[in-house]
Design a protein that fits this description.
Chain C: It holds the Pfam family Lipocalin_9. The complex is a heterotrimer of chains A (about 800), B (about 220) and C (about 350). Helix content of chain A is about 65%, strand content about 15%. With about 800 residues, chain A is an alpha+beta fold. In chain C, the strands form 2 sheets. In chain C, strands 1, 2, 3, 4, 5, 6, 7, 8, 9, 10, 11, 12 and 13 form a 13-stranded antiparallel sheet that branches. Chain C contains 1 helix and 23 strands. With about 350 residues, chain C is mainly beta. In chain C, a hairpin with a 4-residue loop joins strand 15 and strand 16. The chains are: A alpha+beta (about 800), B alpha/beta (about 220), C mainly beta (about 350). Chains A and C meet through helix 3, helix 4, helix 5 and helix 7 of A and helix 1 and strand 4 of C.
Chain lengths: ~800, ~220, ~350
C-alpha cells in the first residue's frame, strides 16, 4: 500500500517537473544564502578563536587599568608581592612594512603556554637566553614574517603558524623596546584567584578593574555587530526563499487534492498519508538543502576574501580568506532547510489533514476575511511598537536589530491590509466594468499573493534601506576623506632620525610639513591614540568637526583643549565643554568632536608641543606635506632620491584616497551582493506564487472570456495586475526602506561602529529600484500571462464543463 | 431565421468525432431544448454556437454573421454583444457583488439599461441580495443572478447549459419558470441544453442529439 | 651543591614549555661562557656575600628545617630561592638576564606539599639584598636585620608557614675556605652554611595551624660550572645529631664512579672538610612506583668519626612537583648516632610530563 501511495505521490512531481525544480530551487536559494552567511561567520569566528587560542586571549580573568593609560610596572610587582598570581601583557600597534601590526609582549617566563613558543622550543630547540635576552625573538605568521624579512631594526623573526595574522608575539622586554613604552603594561592575567586574607584590590591597586574571562576575546566583541549584520541578511534571504517553498508546496498540495481524496477513498489512512507526505517533504528539503549547501559554499568562497579584508580593515581582525568545510555548518544548513520547509508547508499539510473526504471543489473566497485582516493589522502594529520599544529597553546593538526586525515584520504584516484598503478604494473609484473587475480581482488575489508581496516588500525595503545607508556613508566618507586627507603628499620615514632630517629637508621645499605623531594609551579600559598636531590652516580649514565650541582651534593651539573622535565621544559621552584626561593627570577641555570613520578605537588630538612635554619620545616618522599640486611629482622624486625611500613610504593624496575608497567599497561589497540576491529571490517568490494561483485564476477569467473578452486582453490585464501590485508594494517599501535606513544610520551604526551618519536621499536610486521591482514583477507575471494568452479554448471551456 | 447551424462537425484532438454534420435552425424569440445522453455532444454544440469554440467543418450563422469569417476578436465581440451564456456552474465573478455581476455583461457590451436592470432584479427577486458576494448566495440565487446577467445585455440568443443541473427540484422549477418568462417577455431566443424530459417539454421545440447527430 | 646547580638550569629549560631536555647534563655545557668562575683564592666577605653574585651563572639561598609540633609530630619545611643568569651581569627592568625561582614545601609523615614561583630579575619581583638581609620572590620572603635573625615566610594554596630563625652558632665554610670541589675534574662552587638556626613559628596545613619548634639549616652556594659530563644525579644530606654535632654529606653519581664530599661540624661550629671517599653512602631500600623508585633508606658510614648511620625518610613520598622533579624531605637518623636531618635526591624519577 505504501509503495503504491508513494508512486502516486511521486507521479505528481514526474508530471510537474518545473514545479519540482522550482521547489528545489527555492529551497536551495534559501539554504544557500543562509548557509553562505553562516559559513562566512563561522570561518571568521574560527579565525578569532584560533587567534585567541594562539595568544591565550580571554581564557583568564584580567586586571585592566580603569582610567588613563597603562599599568605601571611597579603596580604589577607590588601586586605579585602581595600574593596575586599574575601574568603581565604589554600590547600596542606598530607600523611595519607598510601596515599596522599588533605587538603582543608577554612575560614569557610566567605566561601560560603559547603554542607558537612551544613549537619553536620543541622544534628548533630555541634556548631561553635567545628569547629572553636582547635582541630577543619575534614570532609572526609566515606571511608577516616574510614581509619583515631583512628588516634589520627588528629582532630575528621566527615564522609560526600558531600566531594570528598581523601579530608579533614576543617577550615583554622586546615589546617595550619596540613600542617605546618602558615600564608599562597593558593588562594583567589573573592566573589563580588571589589567596584569601589579602587586602581588597581597591586598596592595593585602585586604578585597576577586574575583568572576567571573556572566552573569545576583544575581536569577537568588536566584530559581533558585523556578523550580526550578515546574519540578519542571511535570515532575510532565508525567509524570502521560504516564501517560494510555501508557494510551491501549497500549489502541489492543491493540485494533488483529487489524488489525495482518491487515495483516502481507497482506504489509505490519513495518518499514513500525512507521514508519507512529510517524508516526501523531508526528502525534498534534504535534496534542496544539499544543493543549497553547495551553492552556499560557493557563494561564501567567493565573498570571503572581501569579508576578510573588510574585517581586517575595519577591526584589524585576523581573518584568512580561505574557507574550510565544517560538519556543524553542513548539519545546521540541512537543519535550517528541514525546519524552514516544515514551517513553510505547515499550512498545506494542515489542509490535507483536514480535507474532507467528499467535498465539492469550492470556489475560492473572494479575499481574506475582515477578521483576518484586523488580526494582521493588530499584529503588525504590535510588532512595530515592540521594535520601537526595543530601542530603549534592551537598547544597544541588539535593540537596533530588534527595531529593524520589528518594523520589517510588522510592516510586512500591515502590507496586505493596506493593499486591501487601497484596492477597495480603487474599486470604488473605478468607472468601467472591466476596471472595477480588475480592482476587485486584485483584492481577491491578495491572500494568495500576499506572502510573495511581503517578500518583495522586505527585499525592496532592505534594498532601499541598505542602499541609502551605504550611499549616505559613501557620500559622507568621500567628503570626509577630502577633509582628512588635505595634504598633497604623505611620507613615512624609516626611523626618528631620518624623520628629523626629512622634516628639515622639507622645511624649505614644502608649503607646510604636518607631522603625524601619536602615542597609544589606554582610556576606560580601551586603547586610545593621542595625536599631537601643529597649528596649521590645513586643520582649521579642513578638519571634519561634527561638534565644536567657539574658538576651538585657538584653544587647541594653546594646549588647553583636546579634540576627540566621534567613537570616543559617543562611547564615553564626552562632548564640547566636558573635560577628559587622555593622559593621566592631564585634564583637558573637549573643544570639538570629529568624525573618524573606519577606525574602531578612540582617538584624541591635542597640541603637539603640549603633548611632547608629557610624552617626550613621540615617534616622529610620518608627515603630511602641503605643496602646490603641480609640484607634487617633483618633490616626491627628490624625496625618494635623497632619502632612498622604499616604494610604500611615499603616497600621494589621490592614491591614498583611492586606497581608502577601495577598502570602503570592499567592505560593502558583500552587503550589495546579498541585496541583489535577496531581490532576485523575491522576484522568484512572486513567480511561484503566480504559478500557484494559476489553477485558481482560470475559473475567474473564463467567465469574462465567455462574456466577450479576448485571451490576449485578459493576459494583458493579468500582467497589469501584477505590475500594479508590485508598484503598490514598491511604494509601500519606500517609506519602510527609509525608516530602515534611518535605523541603520542612527541606531545600528552608532552601536556597531560608534559613528552616526547623516542620511542622504537618493531618489534616482529609488526610481531605479522601482523600475527593477516592476521588471521583477513583470518578468514573474509574464510567463503565466503568456500561458493564458495561448491557452486553447478547450482549456477555458473546462471551467464550464458540467463534469468538473 | 436567427440561428442556422449547417452540417457542423467537431473532433477534439486525437478523439472520436463529437459532432457529425449537425444542422439546426432557430427563429428569433423561439425556445429550443437540446437533449441527449451524457457525451452526446450537447455542450460542444452549445459552445460552438456561443462562439466559445470553433467548428472543424460546416457553417454557423447568427443573423447575418457567419462564424467562419470571425477571428478571436470577432468571436469575442459576438459573445459580448449578441449571445449570452448561462452555465450549470453559474460562473459568477467571485470578486464582484451580485449587483456588479448582474450589470457586468451589459456594461461590457456598453448597453447598460438601468430600468431593465431594475426590472430584472425585481423579477428575479434579487432585491436584498444585490450587495452580497456570490459566495454568500445559495445556488438558486447565484443562478438567478447569472440569468439576469445574461438577459441584461438583451442578447438575441441565450444559451443555457443545464442551468438547473446544480439546483434542487424546487429551486430548479422556480429558476426555470423565471427564465422562460423573462425570455418570452424580452423576445430572446433560447437554446437550452438539458437531459430532463420535463424541462424539454416546456420549450417550443426540441432536438435530440445522439452519437453526434441530430436524431 | 651540584644537585641544585642542575636543578636550577633544568628549571630554566622547563620554564619555556617543552624545551628539549639535553641528554644527561651534557647540554648544560661545562663552559662558563663569560661567567665568573669560583676562585679557590677568593675569601668570602660578609655581609656582602649574603647578597647575589650576578656574574656567576647560578646561586641559591636554601633553607630546610626539621620541626616538631606540640603533640610531638614531626614536620619538615623547605624554602629555596634560586637565581639563574642567562648571561652574566645585571640590567635594569625586563632586560635583566637574571631569572629567579622559588621552591617551598611542607612535609608531614603523611603528606607532602610543594609550590613554585618564577620571576624575572630587574623588575623587583624577586631579589636579594645583603644588608639588611632580604630575599624574596612574590609574597615569599626571608629577611632580617642581619643573617642571624631571620623571618621566613611562604604560602601556597594548601600550606603556609611563618617562622622565626635565630642562629645558634657561626657560619660554616665548606671545602677550603668556602671553595667546595664537586668532581674529580675540578668543578667547584662557593659554598657556606648556617647549619644551626633555632626555629619557632606556625605551620598551616589543610587541617589547621600548628605551633612548631625545631632547627633549620641554611645553605648558600654559587657557581658557574655545573657537573662533569658523566655525572647523572646526586644524593645530599644535612644531618643534626643529638649531641650537637652536624654533618653535611653528598654523593655525585657518575659514570666514572661516585664523588663524595662533606663537612663535619662540631657543636661549637668548628668545621672539618671531608675529602672524596671519606664518606661511604649505600642505599638500603628503594620505594615508590616504578617510575619513581628511589632510595628512602640509606646507610652512611664515616669511619674516621666512628659514624655508622641508618637514615630513613620520614615520608618516602616527598617528591617536589615543580618545574623539574626531585626528592627533598626530612629524615630520621638511627645507628651509632641518632637525630634528624634533610635529604635531597635527583636524577631518579621520571618527570610525569615526560
Amino acid at each position: 500500500m505504501i509503495g503504491a501511495a508513494c508512486l502516486a505521490l511521486w507521479s505528481h512531481w514526474r508530471r510537474h517537473k518545473l514545479q519540482l525544480a522550482t521547489l528545489l530551487a527555492g529551497l536551495a536559494l534559501a539554504t544557500g544564502l543562509w548557509s553562505a552567511v553562516q559559513a562566512i561567520n563561522g570561518e571568521a569566528r574560527a579565525s578569532y578563536d584560533r587567534a585567541a587560542a594562539q595568544l591565550g586571549a580571554g581564557q583568564w580573568p584580567e586586571l585592566r587599568p580603569r582610567a588613563g593609560a597603562d599599568i605601571p610596572l611597579e603596580t604589577y610587582v607590588s601586586l605579585r608581592r602581595t600574593g596575586w598570581r599574575l601574568a603581565p601583557v604589554l600590547e600596542g600597534n606598530l607600523r611595519l612594512a607598510g601596515r599596522s601590526v599588533t605587538v603582543m609582549g608577554v612575560g614569557l617566563l610566567t605566561h601560560p603556554a603559547l603554542p607558537a613558543v612551544e613549537a619553536a622550543e620543541g622544534g628548533d630547540g630555541l634556548a631561553p637566553v635567545e628569547v629572553l635576552t636582547p635582541p630577543g625573538r619575534l614570532f609572526a605568521d609566515p606571511g608577516l614574517a616574510a614581509r619583515l624579512e631583512g628588516n634589520t631594526d627588528l629582532p630575528p623573526v621566527l615564522p609560526s603558524d600558531a600566531v594570528p595574522p598581523g601579530t608579533l608575539l614576543t617577550d615583554i622586554a622586546v615589546a617595550e623596546r619596540l613600542l617605546d613604552r618602558p615600564g608599562t603594561l597593558s593588562r594583567l592575567l589573573i592566573l589563580e584567584p588571589p589567596p584569601p586574607g589579602l587586602p581588597p584590590l581597591s586598596e592595593l591597586a585602585p586604578d585597576l578593574d577586574r575583568v572576567a574571562a571573556r572566552g573569545s576575546g576583544d575581536i569577537a566583541r568588536l566584530t559581533d555587530s558585523f556578523h550580526l549584520n550578515l546574519t540578519a541578511f542571511g535570515l532575510l534571504s532565508f525567509a524570502v526563499g521560504m516564501f517560494i517553498v510555501h508557494g510551491t508546496v501549497g500549489l502541489s498540495f492543491e493540485q494533488r487534492r483529487g489524488m489525495i481524496r482518491s487515495l483516502r477513498a481507497m482506504g489509505l489512512p490519513l495518518g499514513l498519508l500525512a507521514r508519507l507526505m512529510l517524508a516526501e517533504l523531508a526528502l525534498l528539503a534534504l535534496l534542496g538543502g544539499g544543493a543549497g549547501l553547495i551553492l552556499g559554499y560557493a557563494v561564501a568562497g567567493a565573498l570571503l576574501p572581501d569579508v576578510a579584508s573588510s574585517l581586517r580593515g575595519l577591526y584589524g581582525a585576523p581573518v584568512e580568506g580561505t574557507l574550510s568545510l565544517r560538519p556543524g555548518w553542513v548539519l545546521s544548513g540541512l537543519g535550517m532547510a528541514l525546519a524552514g520547509t516544515g514551517l513553510a508547508s505547515a499550512r498545506a499539510l494542515w489542509r490535507v489533514a483536514h480535507l474532507p473526504l467528499l467535498a465539492a471543489p469550492g470556489m475560492r473566497a473572494w479575499g481574506g476575511s475582515a477578521a483576518a485582516m484586523r488580526a494582521m493589522v493588530a499584529a503588525g502594529v504590535a510588532l512595530i511598537l515592540a521594535g520601537a520599544l526595543a530601542t530603549w529597553l534592551p537598547g544597544g546593538l541588539l535593540g537596533g536589530f530588534l527595531l529593524l526586525g520589528g518594523v520589517l515584520t510588522g510592516a510586512a504584516l500591515l502590507l496586505p491590509p493596506l493593499l486591501s484598503v487601497i484596492l477597495a478604494m480603487g474599486a470604488r473609484m473605478a468607472r468601467g466594468p472591466l476596471a472595477q473587475w480588475v480592482w476587485a480581482d486584485m483584492r481577491a488575489q491578495l491572500p494568495g499573493l500576499s506572502l510573495a508581496l511581503m517578500a518583495l516588500l522586505l527585499a525592496l525595503a532592505a534594498n532601499i534601506g541598505v542602499g541609502t545607508m551605504v550611499s549616505s556613508f559613501r557620500l559622507t566618507f568621500t567628503g570626509w576623506l577630502d577633509q582628512r586627507l588635505a595634504s598633497e603628499l604623505y611620507v613615512a620615514a624609516r626611523d626618528d632620525a631620518q624623520g628629523a632630517r626629512m622634516a628639515t629637508w622639507l622645511g624649505d621645499r614644502a608649503d607646510a610639513v604636518l607631522p603625524s605623531r601619536s602615542v597609544e594609551r589606554r582610556h576606560n579600559g580601551a586603547p586610545i591614540f593621542v595625536y599631537g598636531i601643529v597649528d596649521d590652516p590645513t586643520y582649521r580649514d579642513n578638519w571634519p568637526l561634527i561638534a565644536e565650541s567657539p574658538g576651538v582651534w585657538d584653544a587647541l593651539a594653546r594646549g588647553e583643549a583636546v579634540l576627540i573622535n566621534e567613537q570616543m565621544a559617543r562611547r564615553d559621552d564626552l562632548w564640547p565643554g566636558d573635560t577628559v584626561s587622555v593622559l593621566p593627570d592631564w585634564p583637558l577641555r573637549v573643544a570639538g568632536v570629529y568624525s573618524d570613520y573606519g577606525n574602531p578605537t578612540a582617538q584624541a588630538i591635542t597640541a603637539l608641543p603640549a603633548l611632547l612635554e608629557r610624552v617626550p619620545n613621540l615617534p616622529n616618522q610620518r608627515f603630511g606635506i602641503r605643496i602646490a599640486p603641480d609640484q607634487v611629482d617633483d618633490l616626491a622624486r627628490d624625496l625618494r632620491a635623497d632619502f632612498d625611500l622604499p616604494p610604500g613610504a611615499l603616497v600621494d593624496q589621490a592614491a591614498l584616497k583611492a586606497q581608502s575608497m577601495a577598502v570602503f567599497d570592499k567592505t560593502f561589497l558583500v552587503t550589495g551582493a546579498l541585496n541583489v540576491l535577496t531581490l532576485g529571490v523575491a522576484a522568484f517568490a512572486m513567480l511561484t506564487s503566480l504559478l500557484t494561483l494559476w489553477t485558481q485564476r482560470l475559473p475567474q477569467v473564463a467567465p469574462l472570456w465567455a462574456m466577450g473578452l479576448t485571451r490576449a486582453r485578459l493576459a494583458r490585464l493579468e500582467l497589469l495586475r501584477s505590475l500594479a501590485l508590485a508598484a503598490l508594494t514598491a511604494l509601500a517599501a519606500l517609506p519602510l526602506g527609509l525608516v530602515l535606513a534611518w535605523a541603520l544610520l542612527a541606531v545600528v551604526n552608532v552601536e556597531a561602529f560608534g559613528w552616526r551618519l547623516p542620511m542622504f536621499l537618493f531618489p534616482l536610486d529609488w526610481l531605479r529600484l522601482f523600475a527593477l521591482a516592476l521588471l521583477a514583477a513583470g518578468l514573474a507575471a509574464l510567463w503565466p500571462a503568456r500561458r493564458l494568452s495561448r491557452l486553447p479554448p478547450a482549456g477555458l471551456l473546462k471551467v464550464f464543463s458540467n463534469e468538473r | 431565421m436567427l440561428l442556422s447551424v449547417d452540417r457542423v462537425s467537431k473532433t477534439y484532438a486525437g478523439g472520436r468525432p463529437v459532432l457529425r454534420e449537425v444542422s439546426l435552425t432557430l427563429d428569433a424569440g423561439q425556445t429550443l431544448a437540446l437533449t441527449g445522453e451524457s457525451g452526446s455532444g450537447k455542450s460542444t454544440l452549445l459552445n460552438l454556437i456561443g462562439a466559445l469554440d470553433v467548428a472543424d467543418a460546416g457553417e454557423i450563422r447568427l443573423g447575418d454573421t457567419a462564424y467562419a469569417g470571425l477571428d478571436d476578436a470577432g468571436r469575442a465581440a459576438l459573445r459580448r454583444d449578441r449571445v449570452a451564456l448561462v452555465f450549470q456552474q453559474f460562473n459568477l465573478i467571485p470578486s464582484l457583488t451580485a449587483a456588479r455581476n448582474l450589470e457586468f455583461h451589459a456594461r461590457l457590451a456598453g448597453r447598460r439599461d438601468a430600468a431593465w436592470l431594475d426590472r430584472l432584479a425585481e423579477r428575479l427577486g434579487l432585491g436584498d441580495l444585490l450587495s452580497r458576494h456570490p459566495e454568500d448566495l445559495s445556488g438558486g440565487q447565484q443562478q438567478r443572478v447569472a440569468i439576469g446577467r445574461a438577459l441584461a445585455v438583451r442578447p438575441a440568443l441565450l444559451l443555457a447549459d443545464e442551468p438547473t443541473g446544480n439546483l434542487d427540484e424546487t429551486a430548479s422549477t422556480s429558476v426555470l419558470d423565471l427564465m422562460l418568462e423573462l425570455v418570452r417577455e424580452s423576445g430572446t431566443a433560447l437554446l437550452l441544453v438539458t437531459h430532463s424530459e420535463a424541462i424539454a417539454a416546456r420549450l417550443d421545440r426540441r432536438a435530440h442529439l445522439a452519437g453526434g447527430r441530430i436524431a | 651543591m651540584n644537585d641544585r646547580f642542575c636543578a636550577c638550569l633544568f628549571a630554566l629549560m622547563l620554564m619555556l614549555p617543552s624545551a628539549a631536555l639535553p641528554q644527561g647534563f651534557a647540554g648544560l655545557g661545562t663552559e662558563a661562557e663569560g661567567f665568573a668562575l669560583p676562585d679557590p683564592d677568593y675569601r668570602l666577605r660578609f655581609p656582602e656575600d649574603h647578597g647575589p653574585h650576578p656574574a656567576f651563572r647560578i646561586e641559591w639561598w636554601y633553607v630546610t628545617a626539621n620541626l616538631t609540633g606540640p603533640d610531638g609530630s614531626d614536620y619538615g619545611i623547605q624554602w629555596t630561592l634560586f637565581r639563574s643568569a642567562l648571561k652574566p651581569g645585571e640590567a635594569e627592568g625586563w632586560a635583566s638576564p637574571q631569572i629567579w625561582m622559588g621552591h617551598a614545601a611542607a612535609t608531614t609523615t603523611e603528606a607532602h606539599y610543594s609550590a613554585e614561583r618564577l620571576a624575572r630579575g630587574g623588575i623587583g619581583q624577586a631579589g636579594v639584598t645583603a644588608q639588611p638581609f632580604d630575599a624574596w620572590i612574590d609574597d615569599w620572603r626571608m629577611r632580617g636585620q642581619d643573617f642571624d635573625t631571620l623571618r621566613l615566610r611562604a604560602a601556597s594554596d594548601d600550606f603556609a608557614y611563618d617562622l622565626s630563625l635565630q642562629a645558634q652558632g657561626p657560619l660554616v665554610l665548606h671545602g677550603r675556605d668556602g671553595h667546595s670541589v664537586k668532581s674529580a675534574d675540578g668543578q667547584a662552587s662557593h659554598y657556606y652554611s648556617q647549619p644551626a638556626y633555632a626555629v619557632t613559628g606556625t605551620l598551616s596545613l589543610p587541617d589547621g595551624e600548628t605551633q612548631v619548634t625545631g632547627t633549620a639549616w641554611l645553605d648558600r652556594e654559587w657557581s658557574s660550572q655545573p657537573l662533569s659530563p658523566d655525572q647523572t644525579g646526586w644524593d645530599w644530606f644535612s644531618l643534626g645529631f643529638e649531641d650537637g654535632t652536624r654533618l653535611m654529606a653528598f654523593r655525585l653519581r657518575g659514570g666514572r664512579g661516585d664523588f663524595t664530599s662533606g663537612t663535619w661540624i662540631e657543636a661549637n661550629g668548628r668545621a672539618t672538610a671531608l675529602p672524596d671517599g671519606a664518606i661511604r653512602l649505600q642505599p638500603l631500600e628503594r620505594t615508590g612506583p616504578p617510575n619513581r623508585r628511589i632510595p628512602t633508606t640509606w646507610s652512611l658510614v664515616l669511619p674516621e668519626r666512628d659514624l655508622d648511620l641508618r637514615i630513613e625518610a620520614m615520608n618516602p613520598d616527598a617528591w617536589m612537583e615543580t618545574s623539574f622533579l626531585y626528592w627533598e624531605g626530612p629524615v630520621r637518623i638511627s645507628g651509632s648516632h641518632s637525630g634528624k636531618g634533610y635529604l635531597e635526591m635527583t636524577g631518579y624519577g621520571e618527570d610525569d610530563e615526560g
